[in-house]
Amino acid sequence: MNRALSLRRLLALVLLMIWLAAALGPARADETRRRLRVPILMYHYISTPPDDADRYRRDLSVSPEQFEAQLRWLRDNGYTAISLEDVARALSAGTPLPERPVVLTFDDGYDDAYRNAFPLLQKHAMTGTFFVVTEWIDEGRAGYLTWDQAREMAAAGMSIQSHSRTHPDLSRGCDYDCLVYQMLGSVQTIEAEIGIRPRVFCYPAGRYNREVMTVLEHVGIIAAVTTQGGTLHVSERPLQLHRVRVRGTTDLGDFAWMVRDWRG
What we know:
Elements: H1 2-24, E1 35-37, E2 40-43, H2 55-59, H3 64-76, E3 80-81, H4 84-93, E4 101-108, H5 112-123, E5 129-132, H6 134-138, H7 147-155, E6 159-162, H8 176-194, E7 200-202, H9 210-219, E8 223-229, E9 232-234, E10 241-245, H10 252-260
Parallel strand pairs: 2-4, 2-10, 3-4, 4-5, 5-6, 7-8, 8-10
Antiparallel strand pairs: 1-9
């Protein structure tokens, strides 16, 4: 029984790699080692927390007023919002980036992404990457995006990417079949709903290991973001991109330092 299961897994992996080779075309990466400094900003809620919010909700909440002030600072200081696919191509193939690039990412797919973040990004002619947990949207869970909202955002130039199917700790208690379910399943769901296959992944709670990254590569993911702080990215680790966490307590001075001067 175990032998038969192993053979089925091997066959499935071979078929997946053949499909990816045909779908993605020849690899464009070269052997050059590259280092880039690009601030990848990490947001969660773009809303004012309720009065009874716990410390985690307060910490993860950036008010719309704060967020707009940060977008205005980025615009006034010559920053251009790019995608994580742009970062991946710059690392793998040396594709040029704007002089001052920045990536804006939003974890978990809260509905204030549509109500607050989306219109402010449009107002300031910027784009963002929104990592969604697909089963939470499928369930119609309160407080999260709907597929109609995600489709509208994608049609306006926003990037909808995978944050797994159910947001588990992928590094513990998740075997091969579980990893495929969480990663490939979420990618296929987003592709079916949005019409664009995700190429970027966000590790739930920032947890990952070597097996997780291997399955991501097999699924066709070219870049993944962590919760590790920093702005430096290297071509050898496109599945371990660092980010800059923006908190509710981050004032504009701190924000400017993290984006412009942080050497982590």
